[in-house]
Amino acid sequence: MKELKIQPIKNGSVIDHIPPGKALKVLRILSLPKKDTTSIISAVMNVPSETVGKKDIVKIEDKELDPDESDKVALIAPHATVNIIRDYEVIEKHALSIPNELVNIVKCPNPSCISNSNEPISPRFKVISKRPPIKLRCYYCEREPADIEAQII
Ligand code: CTP
Ligand code: ZN
User: What is the pTM of this model?
Assistant: First the structure.
């Protein structure tokens, strides 16, 4: 039987166990692919998984996610695993988690919120529920964004 396998990468990040259909959203949130890089990015969707039925996987060569990027991905894929690859080896594997508070990660949907004014005030949310459906509350105006993914900065 022929099996189509996605190639291992030499250096970079593999985001595994993304909910099926969300791979492109993860790439969009990370602003990938960047205009002037030649690094390879691959995404597979709807691959069978023993544990979750179906999943998406994103592989980003020559990039390791920073903490803010990990928080953003966690909002889309709360059960994803991030694997850091160096010289073909998985040197780090961590489950994503949503912190108790999000600063500069999500924008408040309330146009009259002070975080949307000209004041130098960063959007800040308290995390009310970390399990899907994830619930956030604005620290300033108490608004709870209905579509969190649409508000990710
Ligand atoms: N991977 C990769 N390139 C490498 C090494 C690993 O693309 N050089 C990918 C694997 O294909 C897999 C992920 O990184 O999607 C994690 O690798 P590994 O820990 O070896 O796989 P599993 O044990 O299946 O991971 P888990 O237990 O987290 O499901
Ligand atoms: Zn607000």
Answer: 0.92
